[in-house]
Amino acid sequence: MSTTSPTSTDPVVPPVRMAIRDVAADTYRRLLALSGAVELDSGLRDLINVRVSQINGCVYCLDTHSSEAREHGERQARLDTLPAWREAPYFTARERAALALTEAVTLVASTHVPDEAYDEAARWFDEQELAQVLFAIIVMNSWNRVAISTRMAPATR
Question: Which of 102, 113, 114, 124 is deepest in the core (most CB within 10 A)?
Fold first, then answer.
């Protein structure tokens, strides 16, 4: 009888708490529909999705949306430096405004979304676009909370 014992290189994978997409299938589909209703170019949406997921520490969403961003043509250097976007030379003023708003909305309990962040985003986005940026941020925060609460696990590679 052969038994294997774990080694220090074995990944630690917390058990999934709930298969929420099965348990609350209708509600899950509705959140998917809301995600699909956001009208924003994929490049900016990818940056928002990854940045929200970095802030919230959502491994499932980081894995999913970093992969999607690369599939959509996002450069690895931009993804690598996204946590330090203020210092990185890779982001446009428009993207910086969206990222500042992303952080303020994601950290709403601490920031209460300061006028500076909102006003800077409003300089770069018309009202319709700004509404879509806000919904992209809000929806991604919702998905992070679903994935973290239920311990959704990224695909093994």
Answer: 102
Indicate the burial class of 28 (C-beta count within 10 angstroms; 0-12, 13-18, 19 or more).
middle
The beta strands (E) that lie in the chain are given as: none
What pLDDT, in 10s, does the model give residues 97-155? 999 999 999 999 999 999 999 999 999 999 999 999 999 999 999 999 999 999 998 87
Q: State the Cα–Cα distance between residues 105 and 122, nearest whole angstrom.
A: 14
DSSP 8-class letter at 107? T
Q: Which residues contact 115 (CB under 8 A, 6 or more apart)?
A: none
Q: Global pTM? A: 0.90
Block residue for tokens 């956001």 = 38
Rounded CA separation 142/101 (Å):
16
Structure tokens at 71: 């599939």
